[in-house]
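Long-time lurker, first post. I've been practising inverse folding by hand and with some scripts of my own, and I keep getting stuck on stretches where the structure tokens seem ambiguous. Below is the full token string for one chain I'm working on. Before anyone asks, I'm not after the true native sequence, just a reasonable design that respects the backbone. If someone could post their per-position residues I'd love to compare against what I wrote down in my notebook.
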């Protein structure tokens, strides 16, 4: 660990709002960070900035700053990322990347008040859905800020929800766990199912869009109608499901109607309501992914994650060694691992795939017959692992030669392994 790098940080980045928190190693919990306004802090930070094009001054969107003259409001940053590389606000043209970078710099700078001499060890950003255009831009921006892929992970809300729920006291996830999200865009239900037959426990999550079960035109602003519609959709989703803990989040639950509705829903269940679930889940993920985890007995798997460990058998430091290339539970889009090997009297390389769901282990032999023949131990190969989708593994072999002894042919050989 490099000196000064100790912060575990989680960010929830949505189209309308962002939240940032850090993991406190003394109390073992995430702590929110906010914008200072007078003697108070704003923790639900609008995903927006005010800019004065004449002075190039960038401000947070607060009630006080909105009253200032000469500033242009730029909001809904995630939507702008998905639309185009440039956009117009008023009479001014802005580059999307530049604006998002300004926002991320200001957001991360909030940590300086608490940790002036420390930097980030692991940053986890959670977004509603892992869309490539958003993920790629954020990775590009963070790399320019000095936070590269070894310190950065971008998760969807489903994954951060899993990290949050399983980081709570075990009695809260002794059975299945539910989450309702209610926003202006609709209602969603996510359920965590846990397979406890053997360790590690397999933690999975399914997400359902219940928006179609709500007639928004009829509901309008009538709280009685909203309560009835929500309870009807929720009870349907929970029918015959052994769920004893429920979390609810989203601005839609801030109305008075939700108090009585949730009381009715909590019969035989424990219900928790709050707006910081995803940023706290990202913080817990940062703890786990930094190697300081407490959840080694659990394996998180959903439809975006690889269900297998992939490794090669090597001889290292005078002992047989299993070099892990892919860890089960890693989002397939995040996989890009590599290792260098020097064959010793070998004409093939063995890739081992260990399926944690089927409890099966298969060996795949990669022939080296197509590469140049050289003296023993005078060829260094780079083995690279990526994925085309969740079950299609791409293995690449590259001939790097052996320094001045043997020039590299730079020949590349590729094979797809179906998991």
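-- Answer (accepted) --
I ran through it position by position. Result:
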């Amino acid at each position: 660990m490099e000196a000064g790098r100790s912060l575990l940080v989680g960010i929830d980045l949505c189209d309308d709002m962002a939240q940032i928190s850090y993991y406190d190693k003394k109390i073992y919990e995430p702590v929110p960070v906010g914008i200072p306004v007078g003697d108070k802090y704003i923790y639900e930070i609008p995903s927006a900035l005010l800019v004065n094009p004449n002075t190039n001054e960038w401000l947070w969107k607060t009630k006080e700053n909105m009253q200032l003259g000469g500033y242009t409001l730029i909001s809904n940053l995630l939507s702008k990322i998905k639309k185009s590389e440039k956009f117009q606000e008023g009479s001014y043209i802005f580059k999307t990347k530049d604006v998002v970078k300004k926002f991320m710099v200001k957001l991360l700078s909030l940590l300086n008040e608490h940790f002036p001499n420390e930097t980030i060890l692991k940053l986890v950003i959670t977004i509603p859905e892992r869309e490539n255009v958003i993920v790629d831009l954020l990775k590009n921006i963070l790399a320019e800020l000095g936070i590269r892929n070894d310190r950065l992970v971008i998760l969807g809300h489903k994954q951060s929800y899993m990290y949050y729920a399983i980081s709570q006291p075990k009695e809260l996830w002794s059975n299945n766990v539910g989450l309702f999200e209610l926003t202006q865009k609709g209602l969603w239900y996510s359920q965590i199912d846990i397979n406890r037959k053997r360790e590690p426990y397999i933690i999975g999550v399914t997400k359902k869009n219940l928006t179609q079960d709500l007639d928004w035109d009829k509901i309008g602003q009538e709280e009685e109608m909203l309560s009835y519609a929500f309870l009807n959709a929720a009870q349907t989703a929970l029918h015959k499901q052994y769920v004893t803990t429920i979390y609810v989040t989203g601005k839609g639950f801030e109305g008075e109607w939700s108090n009585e509705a949730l009381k009715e829903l909590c019969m035989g269940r424990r219900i928790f309501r709050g707006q910081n679930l995803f940023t706290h889940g990202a913080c817990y993920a940062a703890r786990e992914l930094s190697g300081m985890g407490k959840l080694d007995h659990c394996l998180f798997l959903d439809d975006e994650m690889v269900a297998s460990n992939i490794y090669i058998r090597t001889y290292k430091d005078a002992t047989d060694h299993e070099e892990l290339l892919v860890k089960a539970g890693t989002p397939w889009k995040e996989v890009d691992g590599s290792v260098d090997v020097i064959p010793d009297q070998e004409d093939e390389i063995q890739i081992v795939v260990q399926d944690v769901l089927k409890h099966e282990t298969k060996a795949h032999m990669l022939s080296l017959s197509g590469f140049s023949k050289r003296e023993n131990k005078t060829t260094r190969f780079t083995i690279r692992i990526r994925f085309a989708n969740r079950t299609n593994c791409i293995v690449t072999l590259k001939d790097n030669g052996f320094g001045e002894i043997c020039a590299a042919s730079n020949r590349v050989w590729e094979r797809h392994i179906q998991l």
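A couple of notes from the structure itself: The longest helix spans residues 223-238. The mean pLDDT is 90. Happy to go over any region you disagree with.
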